[in-house]
Amino acid sequence: MTTLLELAAEKESADVTDWAARLGWVVGLLLFIALVYWLMREGWKWRGTLQGDLPELPGAPSDPGPARLELSGRYHGSTTAGQWLDRIVAHGLGTRSRVELTLTDAGLDVVRPGAADFFIPVGQLREARLDKGIAGKVLAEGGLLIVTWEHGEKLIDSGFRSDHAAEQAEWVETINTMIKTATTEGIAR
Fold first, then answer.
1. What is the pLDDT of residues 12-36, one digit of tens each?
2. pLDDT score of 46
3. Which helix (H) or strand (E) holds 173?
4. 78 contact partners, CB below 8 Å, separation of at least 6
5. If you count Cβ atoms within 10 Å of the first and of the last residue's Cβ in the chain, which end, N or C, has fewer?
């Protein structure tokens, strides 16, 4: 049996790091990450091409009338109605951003700094509800204000989260009341 003195007396060389192999692995990993990013970007652009039949988004009228409700928060995206993972990316609807919502008698004005603004006329509104998820964003039950609207031949769900979540229930009630009133008064759909 060898003693500690004998082990201490033996000379061992330190392991030498193979820098070329390590550098090769790092470069390979970075190239793989760049490839995955490029593929994701191409998929996003392809989805926008497939949704090219969606008409341009309407702009706000010059005089929409007085504001019924205002909300400041986040826009989490738009999807095909009823399919919370089928994100719509055409015309910038897939871009998450801050949002300022204004509800008037004319409709819903969606102002997004750094992204395309759009307007939903009251005749195109179909439903408002509280839900927990849209376009890959999942929150607590009732954490998102989902507005269903018609654009062209397509029903769209758009998801918003208020900075003050308690006010979202009032938005649901007010929008649904406006829809019922517009339907009974015969506003063109």
1. 665 667 888 889 999 999 999 999 9
2. 85
3. helix 168-185
4. 87, 88, 93, 94, 134, 135, 156, 157, 158, 159
5. N
Full-model pTM: 0.75
Long-range contacts of 132-141 (CB under 8 A, 24+ apart): 133/84, 134/76, 134/77, 134/78, 134/79, 134/84, 134/158, 134/159, 135/76, 135/77, 135/78, 135/79, 135/84, 135/85, 135/87, 135/94, 135/159, 136/77, 136/85, 136/87, 137/76, 137/77, 137/96
CB 145 within 8 A of CB 171: yes
Q: Taking the CA atoms of the chain, what radius of gyration do you get in angstroms? A: 27
CA atoms within 13 A on the CB side of 112: 22
State residue 151 phi and psi, 5-degree precision.
-135, 115
Q: How many CB atoms lie within 10 A of CB 120?
A: 26
Instruction: For residue 120, give the nearest of 128, 132, 111, 108 by alpha carbon.
Output: 108
Query: Could you give the 3-state DSSP secondary structure of residue 155?
Result: strand
Helix extents (H) in 51-112:
none
Residue whose C-alpha is closest to residue 47's, from 24, 71, 23, 77: 77
Is residue 150 within 8 Å of 87, Cβ to Cβ?
Answer: no
